[in-house]
Amino acid sequence: MLKWVSGKFDQIRGEVLPASTVHSADPNGWFPFLNAESLLSVDHRKRALQQLWENSPFSRPVWEAFWLIPIRELAIRLQQLPAAQSGPYAREGGMLDEALDVAVCAVRLSRGWLLPPGAAPEDQAAQSSAWYTAIFWAALLHDLAGMDDIAAFHQDGTRWYPGIAAPIGPWRFRFCDSGPDTPALGALVGYRLLPEEGLRWLSHWPKAINTLLVYLSGNQTDCDVLHTAVNEARQKCGLQLLAAKEIPTPMATSSPVVTDEETGHEGGLPPVGGKTSGESFWNWLVSSVANGVLTVNAQDSLVHVMMQHIFVQTPECFYRYLGTKKNAEIEKDNIQKDFETLHRHYSQNGKGIYIYRKYKNEKREGSFIKLFGYMIPLTLIFTNGSQPTDSIWLSPNK
Q1: Which of 141, 160, 276, 354 is most buried, judging by how many CB atoms fall within 10 Å of its CB?
Q2: Where is this region: Disordered (predicted)?
């Protein structure tokens, strides 16, 4: 006799979680079909949707097309299935809850990452929305292989295949032993759920879409960025980490290391009072931006926001810093070299200085002067979550 599952599922540490829906199974294990509105209207799922919206890089219509529609389609295809027989999501609706919770965590974690790793700042600015979307889709669909362990049926005895389609009426399920997990079903469901318009848009960045498709095909550990984001999110949700090879975290917000040979600097300067001159300059820079001593994005500012980075003009900023140090015995060049050893600025192939044009008018037309400076990740300077928009005076040097 088949063992149909009904009632409540195991809860970790006796934790009481809000009911996924107002409609539980009847005594015979039959669940009613619920539409997306009903499934997503409970409080904890509404909070998850709000967090995804707040952390998305899109306008509302684009967010709904690329992010919300896949969630709605996934919801009606999963209904109130549990994610597993035991664990934090072994409850009615646990499979949908796990998908939403991991997606929220992955998106929030990745907002501070520079993506794709190793690309120039202007490329990262152009591609960041694509990579955040790839991370969101990967996190939302990462654990659908568990559907292989579930057999579900309609009241007339026909089989319902969760993930592939919505049930046509009341349904019930049982757990079954499908053997080793295979990614085929998860990949099929993932490909069916991704919006066509979104895939066409993501195709503008071949590396992003190829990484996503490889991830959904089951080769998750071959996709460092997506795999790292999802695994860290799973850990925060109290879930077991996915099988992984040893991979470096590829999205640290500091730049790749510039060698001493590249900088012409043989090691850092001896610390003075426990800090190097580079660290002292850095602390002055951060505090001066915070307290308004250094203005940001004004026509005469030494600091501008460009493409999710802070452009710090050199050598002017170093001379401004030296002006605050009376009787300073250290030269500007030594401070600048010492600052470079901190690796707080973006550098690629030994290139650490970038050129921008500063125009005399807000339309960025007509005459301009060239500025030289460092590109520093925005989140290293603005740490309180409030970040200014791009400067209206600067544009990349063509």
Answers
A1: 141
A2: 252-272
Q: What's the CA gap between 387 and 397, in Å, rounded?
A: 24
Q: Would you state the pLDDT for residue 46?
A: 96
Indicate the angle between helix axes 206-216 and 224-236, nearest 10 degrees: 50
Which segments of the chain does DSSP mark as H helices, in order? Answer: 36-40, 43-54, 60-63, 69-78, 94-110, 121-140, 184-193, 196-202, 206-216, 224-236, 260-263, 277-291, 316-322, 332-340, 378-381
pLDDT of residue 198: 94
- List the one residue out of 236, 17, 297, 209 whose CA is nearest residue 110: 236
Question: Distance (Å, rounded) from C-alpha 186 to C-alpha 183?
Answer: 5
Write out the H or E segment, with its range, that includes residue 42: none
126: which 2 tokens?
């152009």
Residues in CB range of 212: below 8 A, 6 or more apart: 134, 137, 138, 202, 223, 226
**61 and 105 part of one domain:** yes
Distance, CA of 191 to CA of 216 (rounded, Å): 8
| Structural contact between residues 68 and 49, judged by C-beta atoms closer than 8 angstroms | yes
Tokens, residue 22: 């107002």
For residues 207 and 285, membership in a common domain is answered with no
Compute CA distances 44 → 7, 17, 253, whole Å: 20, 10, 31
Could you tell me if 156 and 265 lie in one domain? no
**Alpha carbon distances (Å) from 2 to 78, 85, 350:** 21, 16, 66
Determine contact, residues 168/33, Cβ cutoff 8 Å: yes
Q: Mean pLDDT across the chain, nearest whole number? A: 80
Write out residues in the chain with pLDDT < 50, as ranges: 1-4, 7-22, 243-273
Whole-model pTM: value is 0.60
How far apart are alpha carbons 81 and 94 in whole angstroms?
6
209 in the same domain as 271:
no
Q: What is the pLDDT of residues 85-122, one digit of tens each?
A: 888 888 899 999 999 999 999 999 887 777 887 778 77
Residues 378/310, Cβ–Cβ less than 8 Å: yes
Q: At 67, which helix (H) or strand (E)? A: none
Say if 7 falls within a structural domain: no
* Residue 264: partners with Cβ closer than 8 Å, 6 or more residues away: 337
